[in-house]
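Researcher: Following up on the earlier apo prediction. This time include the ligand. It's zinc ion, with the SMILES given after the sequence.
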Amino acid sequence: MAIDSKPLNLLINTHWHFDHTGGNEWFHAAGASILAHENTRKHLSKATRVEGNWQYTFPAAPAGAIPSTTFKDEYSLHANKTTLMLQHYLPAHTDSDISVHFVEADVFHTGDTFWNRNYPFIDYSTGGSIDGTIRAAEANIAKVTDSMIVIPGHGAVGKKADLILFRDVMAEQREKVAALKKQGKTLAEVIAAKPGARTDAEWGNGFMTPALFLEWCYQGT
Ligand SMILES: [Zn+2]
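Model: Understood. Below is the ligand-bound prediction.
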């Protein structure tokens, strides 16, 4: 598949974060309308504070960057000879996450509910949690077939096996952190115990360090 010279007419946001909506104003100016979950519109319409390691208040997006079409649970459309099925997740990475299934092409886009071999950022300020992240991973595994191409929010394009690995790594570290926290360990002690030693070298060298990811696990257990 290649990008052709036809005019842009539709942009889909998988959630509200700036690294997935930062092109909205440009795409809108180039002629595209913007489609997203209703909570993406809500968060982009006003100043939104994100705590955790971001510690930043995102200003309201410019008018052209605000999604003009929104939905709550599901939305389907037909474009470029394929059916697009959009579905909202229960709160996971944020409260605005959607998946996009390109049915005939057999491609499934998970947005930021799936980071392929990278520890995820989890936005507790707008509804995300480690348990919601694991729940969304389970939903993705139930939905995806062995033949599907899976597009993550971050990391390389993958397959169902990569989703299963992501779910297993999330669940394992959540359980280890929960057990240490129950023993009364502080966050610093949990980080020092290196519960992710098996995957830290590969998964913790991107946007999220092992310590930051453990903070999300600690906060949610
Ligand atoms: Zn995100």
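Model: The CA atoms of residues 16 and 75 lie 17 Å apart.
Researcher: Noted. I'll compare it with the apo version next.
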